[in-house]
């Protein structure tokens, strides 16, 4: 067991009663229809059932007793039912994709040893677009990626690797239906004719699993890709006829090669990327020019709203740029908005563009890859965070709604080109995500895109059972750890909503509060935080404006995002801000130690290699958490010179390290306490 199978782990059913029942009930598979996706469903059922039941369960064309029949019926697109008849099971999709999703759900049911009587299931996806965004570059690296290199060997295409099939199976098994295979900081090279031929082969693999391939497009591609021609295109102005013709030809070419091409994802006029603003046009002008050319083919154009103004306040910049464009994007143009107004920090308010663009199709962009949330060394299960985002009531409408989930499922404004995009953490590491528990986020993202109403508890339980089996102790220990891990990460990195305390270059996971000074916080000897009261709260509905604008109403977890406060400001808990910062970092670190201890008690209950891998991850996690704690606590001590104001934690200075660290008073070695004790009051 090395983790490669992820949650598609089909192991012989251990309980003899279940095994006997399943063996009688399922003897063969019948695929009713001849579509490639249905054949994939049949193949997966055969593979899964054969492994689960420990005997061959072939695809045949004999109905009769013991058949698992998969086909298409009169249901909504992408939906499915699983029904147990007297002598067979019927898995019916509203279309081939729905049938495939039903087949995977059926296998998951058996992987979890669920009773046959429970095999009466009807389900359908909540969001139409359930997308992955790869940040994979042409040279095989992954932007901020932590799971090895890209799974896609671009230069080998149209040669195909077996792993592409496993990739497609994995993401289709949880209902993903679209994938953008290259980085938003896009190389124009992806649109070269030679590349497209190769990509068509990849699209062919994905298609068999109900997945549409997309590309990130560089807006200046017409310039780059015609530079060596006798009469090159010299601008990328969306209103320029030469530019329009170039894109038209390119899009025609793509659809000749990839008839179900999903469309383009574009990052424009953001962080150095070219875009329509370079020519005095708007983001909507830029998006619509491409959208109009994709529309006849059924393609879509996804335009990112992630733009920020250098060192001016990021939080309001994006809203100021995009809010005035509401209603200007064409029907197949979709604006993709990061969950928060900054950049995937461990805690941010919900981006005010949710509810701020009621006449625009919108995708929420979540970061599955743990760029700012612990790399592949620190467990941070993000589903609880995503639940708070999706459940956020914007108050931009009747009652408290709509929520973000209402918007991205299309129910808020009756839209169809909406959904969820996840910056995905899959790489070519053997276990796909760089550490054994990272795939929980991949799975969780997809499950929420399918159904945002599922609870974090349900989703994590499902993932654990599919990935580690049904041992109850493993289940309960791991679940408790995972469900606490996000808030734990927050507590030892950046409590109270400060965020962005990471070293800004390279991997964004080590602490460096100095370099983000004045960008995410204004820390002085008197206090800290970021005073955003002048503008930012007003981007929200009145309800949230009033909550955020006042330091007394603002929830503690966002206090320093919205306000600059003196260290002695009292939180709702009664603690001072400085004391909370100290306590939270120490307590968070302690919790990581507890995670490691709890995992240690599972020795012998989890297969050896994965057990040891995870134990090693917790060792690394402890080291990183300690580094965060010491760096941030020292930083604030350095400015405030305020020592512990309560008895809970004792702070001691290590003069040689220039660091302030500590622990519970009784736990500290005597010599340290005696030599360096500075205050306990
Ligand atoms: C930031 C990443 C950067 C991405 C950018 C984006 O650090 O590498 O290119 O977001 O989303 O979080 O475009």
TrEMBL record:
**Protein name as catalogued:** Xylan alpha-1,2-glucuronidase
Report the EC number(s), separated by commas if there are several. 3.2.1.131
Reactions catalysed, semicolon-separated, are: Hydrolysis of (1->2)-alpha-D-(4-O-methyl)glucuronosyl links in the main chain of hardwood xylans
Query: Which branch of life, at top level?
Result: Bacteria
Domain Glycosyl hydrolase family 67 catalytic intervals: 110-432
Q: Where would I find the Alpha glucuronidase N-terminal domain in this sequence?
A: 6-106
- Residues represented out of the complete protein: 34 to 714 of 928
- Assembly, per entry: Homodimer.
Q: Which UniProt keywords apply?
A: Carbohydrate metabolism, Glycosidase, Hydrolase, Polysaccharide degradation, Signal, Xylan degradation
Q: Which residues form the Glycosyl hydrolase family 67 C-terminal domain?
A: 433-642
GO MF entries: alpha-glucuronidase activity
| Originating organism | Kribbella aluminosa
Q: Which family does it belong to?
A: Belongs to the glycosyl hydrolase 67 family.
